[in-house]
Fold:
Amino acid sequence: MRPVRYAVIGCGMIAAYHIAAIRALPDAELAGVCSRTYEKAAEFARLHRTKAYGSIQEVWDDPAVDAVCVCTPSGLHASLALEAIAHGKHALLEKPLALTVEDCDRIIREAKKKGVLVGVVSQLRFSPAIQQTKKAMERKVLGKLVCADLYMKYHRSQTYYDSGSWRGTKAMDGGGALMNQGIHGVDLLQYLAGPITTIYARAKTMTRSIEVEDTLCAVTEFKNGAMGVIQATTGIYSGFSRRLELCGENGTIILEEDRILLWDVADDKGLPHDTTGGMDVRSSSDPTLIGLAGHRRQLANFTAAVQGREALLVDGAEGRKALRIILGAYRSAAEDRPVRVEEV
Structure:
């Protein structure tokens, strides 16, 4: 079976992780890179010893390209995904899948029609600690879930926002602390604790000069009856690790980033094996410190799915879930009322 050949669209920081992940896989190859300008693509290609496409159309016209990794600002994700689908290319997009539920649905629908795969990067799901916790939640080791809480207290300087004209804008970022930095945490929260049915949020721009929120707090209700809170900010010093707390009548599991911090279960006091090392995620203060292992594991699954050897674990429908929760929080904050996620 021949390797899956990828073109990487977008030449920002995250693109380097995709390139490294592709090159770490025996059944994947890098076809080249593309950016808004050829000059930027050429410089990035030189740095990574690969081909620079002169335009996005060259990517679509290249029969050697099986799939694309979309690493552009969020506001371009939907249009690029739809173009890739129209040209018969599989697409793995950095989060979020799109900025509206309507665009998500269109992408999912068109991909099904065309028979291509669309995935969304949710690399933390592939951590051994997250997988162990997921299995424990499926076995209901905590009994009735009472609280499921997510804390994401990060630091992003004004210089960070000023480094790109798209950062902190509604059109290209889609939102602030919850959408850009917080979406991975929201994805893990609903992945582990189950669907969120209702959210009541307040959002403010407190410390940064940006168009969107730098701080949001929300109260949530889950389908299984549990309650919880979500806190997300990029405005504090110096930034702290993401923390997810799952508390039930029979035990509590606390995750810090992608490692298990506490496993206090009534009939199992010990930590599970091989789940405390994590993937070296330290991005609460520096967005570049996310580790490579998660992208490598997700690219491996996406590649195997393209080749028909595995099921795709994070498809468009999975990516849609976290987006709906975030958009529900934004609607709640704007309208000052609880919002049912199914309304979004």
Q: What stands out?
A: The chain has a mean pLDDT of 95.
